[in-house]
Amino acid sequence: MGKNKLRKFAEMEEFGCVKQFPITELRGHGVCPLKGKWGAEVFGNDNPIVLELGCGKGEYTVGLSRLHPEKNFIGIDIKGARIYTGAKIAETEGLKNVAFLRTTIDLLPCFFAPGEVSELWITFPDPQMRKANKRLVGTKFLSMYRQCLADGGMVRLKTDSPFLYAYTTEMLRASGMEPSASTADLYADGEPQGSDLVLPGGAKVPNIRTYYEQLWLQRGLNIKYIEFPLASDAALAEPDVEIEHDGYCSRGGRNIVGIDI
């Protein structure tokens, strides 16, 4: 491990906004001591808690926290060197409504009590075109989210992958659910109003562009957005349709355009 990573890890140990727990203990059916207590013990309030899954460097988590001081935001990622960037900003700016949790997404029920989370953001995940059980908007993960998400809590997806956008649309249809907002080109359909993009129908999407999102836009990729309330009693079902694969390729956390997969 490089000296720079070691320095970041050491510094993060001093960050109050970063929470880390032994994964091996949690996988053995352990429970995080903060489960059900994030509002009181981490944020000191009872404001709604919003998670960003696979937050990377935390740009979106930090951006959301700046725009919405009335909510609490937790960025989740397993890569500590990535989390460091957002955590450093949060510490420097003294943001009290943002935290970062270093863990894997499949362990969410170990960290959050039923109904403790009000909404989820999933920003630019790997579409996992060949592995449905690894898609963060697939039925396996949605079933898990329901263990900590409030009934009807919103799931919000931003993606540059046509495949993942189409899959999510078809999965909702197969599950008898309707998106509350959906667009295949967020920045063409969204009208800038203050700090938001307002979609036809009135849905508001924070006008936050991460570093890599800006690169993808410059490469000609349209950003897709879809949001839907996740009901606790929805009969989740995988779509029984063929969805064309796109040119997504994850290498070093970046999208490479024009690669046939």
Helical content (DSSP H or I, runs of 4+): 25-40%
The rounded distance between the terminal residues' Cα atoms is: 32 Å
SSE topology string:
HEHHEHEHEHEHEHEHEEEHEEE
CATH topology: Rossmann fold
Rg on CA atoms, Å: 18 Å
The residue-averaged pLDDT reads 91
Given helix and strand content, the structural type is alpha/beta
Biggest beta sheet summary:
8 strands, mixed
How many structural domains does the protein architecture include? 1
Strand content: 15-25%
- Strand order, largest beta sheet: 1-4-3-2-5-6-11-7
The CATH homologous superfamily: Vaccinia Virus protein VP39
* Low-pLDDT sequence parts: 251-261
CATH class reads Alpha Beta
Tally of strands: 13
Tell me, briefly, the overall form: globular
Short description:
The protein has 261 residues and is of the alpha/beta class.
Could you please describe the fold and organization of this structure?
- With 261 residues, the protein is an alpha/beta fold.
- Helix 1 packs across helix 5.
- The model is unreliable at 251-261 (pLDDT under 50).
- 31% of the residues lie in helices and 23% in strands.
- The chain has one domain: 3-Layer(aba) Sandwich (Rossmann fold), CATH 3.40.50.150.
- The chain has an eight-stranded mixed beta sheet. The chain has a three-stranded antiparallel beta sheet with strand order 8-9-10. A two-stranded antiparallel sheet has the order 12-13.
- The two termini are 32 Å apart.
- The chain is globular.
- It has ten helices and 13 strands.
- It has helices at residues 3-12, 23-27, 38-43, 59-67, 80-93, 108-111, 139-145, 162-174, 186-189, 211-218, and strands at residues 18-20, 49-53, 72-77, 98-102, 117-123, 149-159, 181-183, 191-193, 196-198, 204-206, 224-230, 250-251, 254-255.
- Strand 8 (191-193) and strand 9 (196-198) form a beta hairpin.
